[in-house]
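Sanity check record (used in CI):
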Amino acid sequence: MLNAQWLETFVTLCETGHFTRAAEQLNMTQPGVSQHLQKLEAQIGQSLISRQGKRFSPTPAGEAVLAVGRARRAEEQSLLETVLSDDPATGEVTIACSGSFAMLIFPHLLSAMQHSPKLTIRLEAAPQDKVLNGVLKGQFDLGVADHDPRHPRLDAMHLAQEELCLVVPLDAIEPPISFQALEQLGFVAHPDGFAYADSLFALNFPEEFRGSDRLRIRSFVNQISQIPAPVAEGVGYTLLPRSGVNSYPAKDRLQVAPLPKRLRHDLWMVSRRGRKMPARVEWIGQLIASVSNSLDAE
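Expected output for LysR family transcriptional regulator:
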């Protein structure tokens, strides 16, 4: 690797065209400039300047080294500008969360990017173990989890409580909701739906409910954005977090059915402990927290 100090001396020498002026600009002696040049030539193994009396010009090797020196100087200047100017509207932010929460926050993240052309946001819908492992490994700046991980290398901030909702077609079932009526409709299942059913139905229908594996399945949907679609068309019911209901475009065709016992789970924003967050990550974290407040109000 080329010696950075010798390289900078050579670039300054070529730009000033004079040993004395280069020495003055670098706050060195003229013999010191000559010594740096000689050491750089020894490191390269070729002469870098061709002398014509008191004047000189770069050799072909010198021109190549000069180009490298100028490029390195520009890179260092760019690095300093990036480090010293922590602009919240510039750079990349990576986030991982559940699919339903991703649908809720994405319009707000999109608005932030529209107002900040130099801001890049990468949002990934992921299962909980990937969210936490990704934050630990530095793959994500921020993660949103459904519990406090209580991990020694993670910081967690409580955001809100989110209700788990029984979603039925509009005006399809009159309260009070019975388990038999739900079975007649049939379950629009999805990857997380069975665990939701075991939690919510065991709480509200302890006598009739015998486990999610015995539910009458009407449909199975793997895409989070499409899970409410069959329900909106009158085909079955489903179970979703409140964020998944609120973010569905045709939510006016859905009904969140009231149940005797409501079930809510916590949302936590997770980041690596001890890391000083760039301003852009702090800004997006505040935006996520603000959007989460709407779930507490439901």
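Residues 4-84 form a domain with the Arc Repressor Mutant, subunit A fold (CATH 1.10.10.10). If this sentence no longer matches the regenerated tokens, the check is flagged for review.
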